[in-house]
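A favour between colleagues. Tell me how you read the following sequence-structure pair.

===
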Amino acid sequence: MTAPRSAADDGAPRGLTRRILLDCPLPAAVLVERVEVREISLPMRLAVGAHRHPCPVFGQVLRGEILFEVEGQPPQRLRAGDLFYEPATTPILHFDAIDEPATFIAYFLLGPGVDNVLEMVE
């Protein structure tokens, strides 16, 4: 993932500003049939547990702080406004509300015949 940056000048109306907040290459081409958007709330100190999804998931924290760790990457502390990416089928070791309730929006990129499921892993 890359840091926020300004979008190229593409003839937008004067005074309009846009910043790219997330530019995340996917490991392979993904056929997306539909996008499911969910608002998800976690009570204080809830540890979701290691899990994975069958599709890529993008999201943004709205409130609270979340301990986030994708397998093979260092853990990070996500705060309100932070964006995240969960690669398809990759274990998410931590997605835990820390010291207060947390709410986030998640965008699930679903392919043909794929349902959004949360599969717990050991």
